[in-house]
Design brief:
The chain is an all-alpha fold. It has 4 helices and no strands. The longest helix is centred in the last third of the chain and has 76 residues. Keywords: Ion channel, Ion transport, Membrane, Transmembrane, Transmembrane helix, Transport.
Amino acid sequence: MPTFFTLVWGRLRGSSWWRRVHLRAAVAGVAVSTVVLLAGSAVILPLEENAPGATITSYPLALWWSIETATTVGYGDLYPVTAGGRVVAAVVMVVGITTFSVVTAALATGFVSRATRDLHRLGADVRRFEQNHADGLAEQLRAMHERFDRLENRLDQRG
């Protein structure tokens, strides 16, 4: 029986918007971030849990630590005290910053490409309108100029 995740994944892969690179990059970034957070928590726990003065003593705490480290929040409530724990922390920080940057850039690219596509469509619509109504617009402009000329002449005569 397929899980919810496999059903959603199957729908995403089959959709037209999935073919766009920026969306695949965002999903890949989220997947990498998730793996790094879970792996960082699993790796740091045995290094830290029995160390003197350790603050990371359970998997839930390790998971919370990896989330706040990867997102660079760093409340200071949880921190590694061993050399191995600090190496893991550095890896989680670098990978976290990098993957969150990739996700942000990918989403921004998606928004910009959508806006660009909309602007191109709008420009095409304006050009099409101008082509279809150029004669009528020119005639209206000529009529307005004639009216302004008459008004200017009247103002000059009153003078």
